[in-house]
Amino acid sequence: MILSHGLVVALAVVLLLVLIAARTPIFIALSVSGIAGLLCLSGFDGLKLVPLAMGAQLQEYALVAAPLYILLGEALAVTGLGRDLFGAAHRWFTRVPGGLGASAIASSTLFGAMSGVSISSVALIGRMAVPEMLSRGYKPGFAAGSVAASGALAMLIPPSLMFILYASVTGESVASLFAGGIVPGLLLAALMIGYVVVRAKLDPNSAPRDGESFGWRERWVALGKISPALVLIALVLGSIYTGFATPTEAAAIGALLALAMTGVVYRKLGWTNLKLIFASTATVSAAMLAIVGSAFVFTQTLVVARVPETLTDFVVGLDVHPYVVLIGIMVVLLLLGCLVDAASLLLVVTPILAPAIEELGFDPLWFGVLLVVNLEMAVITPPVGLNLYTMKSVVPELDLAEIFRGIAPYLAIEFALILLMIAFPETATYLPSLIT
Hints:
This protein is mainly α and about 425 residues long. It contains 21 helices and no strands.
């Protein structure tokens, strides 16, 4: 019996979702469903595509930067920088309602500009910020939500691993994607801080003020403690945008500088920490690259079944405004993000959606930034949201239900940013236009 392409794709997707629901590791779920789809479509000859697809994708030069940026973040994580970032932000936001929540968001923003991995940011900042907030009477949902949501900023603010993955699939410039994420990332951080301040003002019981104050000297001293990290951010991003280095070369420079900074400035590069840095880097990098390779196997099923072409023809043929289609795509991605982790979802949907987006007349770079903002919601949306469970693991006394409640307002803020970016595409395209 010969199955139609549409039925095979539907069965492959159902198998993928069943495996994910059964808590099968995502790279196994993608590989098994992809191989099953290829077998149904092309028989055993289709399996020849599996090693070719994985090899071709993993040889993509843009992916070389990913382990290097992970190494950079892991090196800084052992220095105690998270404590210094939170301490500096607290001294500058102490007079603001909900100051500790605002400080957590600000410090997550800064660490995101060094790491690119959202769960690292949640673990590093959450370990210090949330217990501090709880000890001062902050409601658990308020405290956990501010850290779990702002940790996702690492996906949007360069150096973003999500942009590297998007570039590896579409061929877009990593440097341009990095530039495109700066304004939306900072705008999203400002909106989150704004929400915290307004919420604390309207409901003081959520975030009681403790009357603590700091002088200007203490603020500048605290800022001085994190100045090496700020210089590192400036050097990495500056080398990219001045044309001195490519994003991959800048990643290598940043990783070397981070290791040197850990040893010379912070005196934390002992043998134990060195093993921890490289072990963590290898673990995260291997997991990410396994997902990249397996996702590409799954997308081969979609390519063989001509799903991208079929979807493009369908979308272009719709008698509706392109922006209606775009908003529909964003809603579908939001729902899928509740079931599939962000990186896997990006790698699966990008080859399908990118041709249709271009046919509708949208800028693929702008769509890439929009897609990453949407996928930020995936890491803070139950039941799969990795940031939520990371938050629970670093502060075990928190109840998951409280974390879920605390995160809800930030989902609305993220979606508001999506609508803002649709209304004003320049938020993501202006800076890239200056460097091209």
